[in-house]
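Notes on consecutive records. When two proteins share a document, each keeps its own sequence and its own C-alpha cell line. Never mix them. Below: protein one.
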Amino acid sequence: VQLQEWGHGLLKPSQTLSLTCAVYGDPITASVYYYSWIRQPPGKGLEYMGAIARDGGVYHNPSLKSRTSISRDTSKNQFSLQLTSVTPEDTAVYYCAMARELSTVAGGGADYWGQGTQVTVSS
C-alpha cells in the first residue's frame, strides 16, 4: 500500500487549504481501513483532523469540524481534505494516513503514511 499526497503549500490567511491523497494497492470502497488526515505544526505533536471510512462515513476532530471537509473520489481511489479560513496557526506538515482502527488515527497514529506536505500560511 502506498499513499501519495499533493496540494498547494503556501496560502494566505482566510484562504482554503486543499489536499488530495491517492491510494495505491487498497480499494477505498472495500477496505477495512480508515483514511485520515493528520498534521504536525512546527515544534508540536501530531494532530488528528478527521477520517473517512469505506462506506463514506466521515469522522471529525471536534476542534476542527467547523472548518474541515473530507471527501473521496472512488473512481480515482483518492480522498481529499479542505480546511477553510486558514490562519498562521494552521501552518504544519499535513499527512494522509491509513489505519485499521479509528482510535489509531484519532490518537495521531497510522499503519501507512503519505510523504507529508508542508503547508505554510503567511500574509
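Protein two starts on the next line and is unrelated to protein one.
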Amino acid sequence: QGQLVESGGGLVQPGGSLRLTCAASGFTFDSFVMSWYCQAPGKERELVAWITVTGGVKRYADSVKGRFTISRDNAKNTVYLQMNNLRPEDTAVYYCHAEGYGTTGREEYWGQGTQVTVSL
C-alpha cells in the first residue's frame, strides 16, 4: 500500500519562502504523476502544481505561477514544492498526491497534509 508523508510546512511572514517535501513509499514512484493540492478553511481542495513521471512537464495554478516550483527526485522517491514570495492567501493545508498504474490497476494516494500559514 502506498504512503505519502509531507513535511516542511509552518508559519512564515509575507514575502517569505518554504520548501515542502513529500516522501513516497510502497509504490513505483517513477511511474506516478505527482501533484500538490491545497485546501484553505471553508474552501474546496484545489490543484496547485503537478509534474510528470520524468519531471519533463510541469503545470501550475495561475495563482502560483512564477512563485512556486514543483520538482521531483525519482532516486529518492521524493517530490518538492518550493514556495517563494508567499502571500497571506497561500495559507492552507498542502497535500501531496500520487496517481498512476500499479500492480492493482489505477492507484492514487494522498498524504496527511502539512499546514502553511502566511502571516505577520
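For the record: The mean pLDDT is 97.
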